[in-house]
Amino acid sequence: MALLSILCYPDARLHTVAKPVSAFDRDLEVLAQDMLETMYDSNGIGLAATQVDVHQRLIVMDTSEERNAPLVLINPELIEKSEETLIAEEGCLSVPGIFDGVERAKEIRVSYLDLQGQRQSLHASDLQAVCIQHEMDHLMGRVFVEYLSFLKRSRIKSKFLKAQRQNSRD
Ligand code: NI
């Protein structure tokens, strides 16, 4: 088990489109375990492989109150989504400290493979549905701040660039 380092917005690697997972081997299990450990350690509810600079279609999540229901979704596909939407306050481990509302489908059905390569299907609503849509966006190279207004996004981008410049000077 190991903690992985998380790419921080506006790192260009966050815009990489992930490729489907094809090998269901020990390496994939280790990656999923390390991603879960990294997510719990950072108090996140979801993490996409893209965020740890691995460009494969894999996400981990746990939206339970008790933080004891880890879920690994490989090659997830959105099968259905409700017309009804909700706007939830979202955050992201790659954009620390920024929270803002994004409109998403309230209910979805997602088809995915588990770590054994078995096809599974999940009906999710509210927080879990939001989390899956947010993480699946990462796999397409999309970060949630891209849904915000140009002005908000520009402010966030300059804030992070400035912080990174200061860190590299120290
Ligand atoms: Ni995120």
Folded structure, characterized:
By secondary structure, this protein is α+β, with helices and mostly antiparallel strands. Helices cover 29% and strands 26% of the residues. The chain is built from three helices and seven strands; from the N terminus they run αβββββββαα. It has helices spanning 26-41, 126-139, 150-169, and strands spanning 46-48, 58-61, 71-81, 85-90, 100-105, 107-113, 119-125. The strands form two sheets. The protein has a five-stranded antiparallel β-sheet with strand order 1-2-3-6-7. The protein has a two-stranded antiparallel ribbon with strand order 4-5. A hairpin with a 5-residue loop joins strand 6 and strand 7. The chain is globular. The model has no long low-confidence stretch (mean pLDDT 97). The chain binds nickel (II) ion.
Using brief descriptors, characterize the structure shown.
single chain, 170 residues, alpha+beta, five-stranded antiparallel sheet, two-stranded antiparallel sheet, 3 helices, binds nickel (II) ion
Measured on Cα atoms, how large is the radius of gyration?
A: 16 Å
SS elements, strand count:
7
Structural class: alpha+beta
CA(first)-CA(last) distance: 31 Å
Q: What about the largest sheet?
A: 5 strands, antiparallel
**In which order are the strands of the major sheet placed?**
1-2-3-6-7
Number of helices: 3
> What's the oligomerization state?
single chain
Order of helices and strands: HEEEEEEEHH
Q: Helicity, in percent?
A: 25-40%
Low-confidence stretches: none
Proportion of beta-strand residues: 25-35%
Q: What is the global morphology? A: globular
